[in-house]
Amino acid sequence: MKYRQLGNTGTRVSTLCLGAMTFGEADDKSFMHAVGSSETESFRMLDRAVELGINFVDTADVYGQDGLSERVIGRWFRESGKRDDVVLASKMRFRMSDSPNGTGASRLRIQKAIDASLVRLGTDRIDLYQIHMQDVATPDEEILRALDDAIRAGKLVYIGCSNYAAYRLVGALYTARQAHLTPFVTLQAQYHLACRDLEREHVPACLAHGLGLLPWSPLAGGLLTGKYRKELPAPSLSRMAKWKERYDGFDKRPQNWAIVEELLSVAAEVERPASQVALSWLLAKPTVTSVIFGARSVVQLDENAGAADLELSPAQLKRLDHVSAIELGYPYDFIKRIDGSW
User: Which of 53, 100, 315, 333 has an alpha carbon 20 to 30 Å from 89's alpha carbon atom?
Assistant: First the structure.
């Protein structure tokens, strides 16, 4: 396993991060119903991750229902005694109750969410606490001051954000500097071969301000594993067999299937699974600190973890870049045409 700095901090995390969204068997009230892992299998995955050198685990209060994923991790901490072997990341922002203040990122909500997560996780601190999506109704200074207070109280170590527009991310960094508050050190966002929109604004912003990028959904919901093919139904028991509308969406963008074919071609050359090639491509991208991957079993975890030591050749990376290229749009294409980059 390889390790990188967590953004511009001194903490080192594994280049692969175990995403815990699948942890626990959620009931039919949860979007994760029937696509999660049992607590026993979740414990096995956590044990195996640590054994492989993965020291970074990402969860959120909303994963499962009623904090299910956090509760599973908390029980594993108690049984394994491995809390200090893990850099623990969690998130808050989405609705957790029907009350008027059951969602959002107000100071009131942040304080309650942190304390609730600490109880579920059975720990005295969360190493990286992230706002799960920007809250347009709450000023940046209110959010950052609440997080800064929690850091000073020893409840949080670092803070980050997720699913932020680039303007709001840079605005929050400016606010933190002007108000002498702790700034975000990471951005967690969707980024993979079939979704490279971040490269227009977010990646340059992260490079300019020293933020670590934490890609989520690096395999595009399974598209980049090679198990889904054009004009064929989703395999039974797969997530896309349940989420049929999302699977149908793959066909609406023909480029997706061209990406899959090139991915499989490179995978055959390096004699590795397509999933490892997709993860390795991300790890070669600027400002990426750690790639968050999910797994439903130890077998899936082992397969994905193999990406840690896979380095694609410059020619292979260029082929994958070419087939997955996005239209930059204005003004990026104008600037690139004049200056060669933006």
Answer: 100
